[in-house]
Amino acid sequence: MKAFTFERLARATDAANAAARPGAMFLAGGTTLVDLMKIDVLTPDKVVDVRPLGLSSIDVSDDAIAVGAAVTNSQLAWHPVVRDRFPVLSEAILSGATTQIRNMATVAGNILQRTRCPYFRDVHASCNRRQPGTGCDALDGFNRGHAVLGVSEHCIATHPSDMCVALAVLDAFVHTVRADGTTRSIPFGEFHRTPGDTPHIEVALEYGELITHIVISNLPAARRSHYLKVRDRASYEFSLASAAVVLDLDGHTIRSARLGLGGIATKPWRATDAERSLTGRRANDDTFRDAAEIALAGAVAREHNHFKIELAKRAIVHAFVTASEAKV
Amino acid sequence: MIVNFTTGLVHAGSNRLLTHHTPSLFCFAVFEEGDNFFRDEVIDVKTNIRVNSTTHELSLDSRLTLLDALRDVLGLTGTKKGCDQGACGACTVIIEGQRVLSCLTLAAACEGQHVVTIEGLAKGEELHPMQAAFLQCDGFQCGYCTPGQILSAVCAVQEVHAGVPSHVTRDVRQTVNSATLTDEEIRERMSGNLCRCAAYPNIVAAVRQVLANELRS
Predict the structure, then answer these.
(1) Which residues of chain A have pLDDT under 50?
(2) Does domain B44-120 have CATH number 3.10.20.30?
(3) Which of A130, A165, B113, B178 is the most buried (most CB within 10 A)?
(4) Same fold yes or no, B44-120 and B129-216
(5) How confident is the model at residue B5 (pLDDT cuts 50, 70, 90)?
(6) Which CATH architecture has domain B129-216?
(7) A49 touches chain B (CB under 8 A)
(8) CA triplet A150, A228, A161: central angle to 5 degrees?
(9) So where are chain B's domains?
(10) Domain range A223-325, CATH class
(11) pTM for the whole thing?
(12) For chain A, where do the domains classified as CATH 3.30.390.50 start and end?
């Protein structure tokens, strides 16, 4: 591991200033950064610890909840108001990693976590995301875990987060502070980017721009919501395909629906066309299957990940059926 | 002499000749305690850590993980290094009451925090109830994962008492109840600790025994 200076600062703008150049990185829970530093994928020369900044409260109001950047995944998933208002978020977080890791991993860190693509994690492999312009070994490599939505000829890396798929179907905003002290609020759907021809640019942040908190607006329909994750083993595994659903029902008729997809896309995916197709229809298997077909219509598979398209469609139907039958 | 291959730091032991490989040549060099095997710059960070109720004022290589600090600097070798990449749970310790992985925690990030390791669990000669349950239920074979398993299980029981859900809890709005907790729940809550001897049924039994004894008392 490359040597680095370690800074503990007390104010968010000071931290943003300290990290406002290439080579400096923020440290929160460490589950991504320390892991990737050990294998030389990330080589910061300065690490700024954000946990002394005190961004660790969950503030609840009638309209929204504000979640500090350093709130742990466990704290958020276990919070009684989150479990009550946004079960999809609690379920998504609890389906990821293990208790030890969720106790370390923070909300901001989860939003910024890096792909698990094995070629990204291997400094001897070609990876446009890690080293722009070097090519992508995943395209014709072992790409069973890779994305089928939002892909480009430069990168097919899957976004690994479960939590972010749930946030994608809620009305969430990422609040930041920049080195000059200015703040902004970024709608969650605009935060992550598909790779296109610049896969190394993953999110909307500038150098030194620090996530301070996220705000999740109240969404009454989210009381009927669900996260379904399909994976190779029952626990402690990344998703092969997952669906986050919110369902607003009037009897058996769908007033509106929301659909997020994980494990199959290059960013936390919102399937808006599929959502629109559900409005006004009866909540049953056929309706949900039609929506699933629309959600995966643009899927592009490689040699080893064809199975994900059908798997995702079935996950979508299953998640909607579960949500439609839930007692709320 | 021990070389930490994350940091390159050479730890205690008599001076010895070590081979030092570089891309262009194979050379020999004499290392002493405190040297860096990678011949890299070492940046020390002053860090105060409380471990098992004892405060240590340390100056540590910024790259040192809490796991390596516990084992190589403080000599607390009860915490085990399994995968060293956050996959196996052997390095589990309790920081500020929460179970975490010490291999993915930088020691410098533990400033002012209280760490409990397996050495801090028993009260003198009296084992912690979870340690006693692992013995009674034969919850291990080789024992390498056991310190992490026990610390993880101690916290899992506390989480059950707090009523918080897990991935297999049918409805996250419900408060879980230790009296009706299924084996599936215990397995999910312990899934961050791998056991290559596959002592899992007995580990589940140990956790269940502690929950049952606490209900009785």
Answers:
(1) none
(2) yes
(3) A165
(4) no
(5) low
(6) Orthogonal Bundle (1.10)
(7) yes
(8) 50
(9) 2-31, 44-120, 129-216
(10) alpha beta
(11) 0.94
(12) 223-325
Q: Is the pLDDT of residue B20 over 70?
A: no
Nearest residue, CB atoms, B42 vs list A3, A27, A234: A3
DSSP β-ladder status, B26-31 and B54-61: unpaired
**A151: region left, alpha or beta (phi > 0 left; psi from -120 to 50 alpha):** beta
Report the pLDDT value the prediction gives residue B217, as an integer from 0 to 100.
Answer: 78
* DSSP state, residue A245: E
- What pLDDT is attached to residue B22? 39
Q: Does A104 touch chain B (CB under 8 A)?
A: yes
DSSP state of A158: P
pLDDT digits (tens, 9 = 90+) for B170-208: 999 999 999 889 999 999 999 999 999 999 999 999 999
Distance CA A224, CA A245 (A): 8
Q: Give how far Cα A16 sits from Cα of A211, A220, B133, Å.
A: 9, 35, 48
pLDDT 10s digits, B42-86: 999 999 999 999 999 999 999 999 999 999 999 999 999 999 999
Contact B101 A94 (CB under 8 A): no
Kindly list the residues from chain A whose CB atom is less than 8 angstroms away from the CB atom of residue B45: 6
Q: What are the start and end residues of each CATH 3.30.43 domain in chain A?
A: 5-52
Residue B216 has a pLDDT of 84
> B22 versus A142: which is more confidently predicted?
A142
* Nearest Cβ partner for B85 among A8, A38, A83: A38
Query: Cβ–Cβ of B155/A74 closer than 8 Å?
Result: no
Three-class SS state of B102: helix
Rg (CA), chain B: 20
* Dihedral angle of Cα B154, B158, B161, B165, to the nearest 10 degrees: -100
Region for residue A236 given its phi and psi (left: phi exceeds 0; alpha: psi -120 to 50; beta: otherwise): left
Q: Could you say which architecture CATH assigns to the domain A5-52? A: 2-Layer Sandwich (3.30)
Architecture of domain A53-112+159-217: 2-Layer Sandwich (3.30)
Helix, strand, coil share (%) of chain A residues, nearest 5: 30, 25, 45
For an interface test with A, the pick among B68, B92, B167, B173 (most A C-beta atoms closer than 10 Å) comes out as B167
DSSP letter for each residue of B111-161: TT-EEE-GGGTSBTTBPPHHHHHHHHTT--SS-SSHHHHHHHHHHHHHHHH
Whether ipTM tops 0.90, in short, is yes
Count CA within 13 A, CB hemisphere, residue A224.
Answer: 20
CB contact under 8 A, A30 and B105: yes
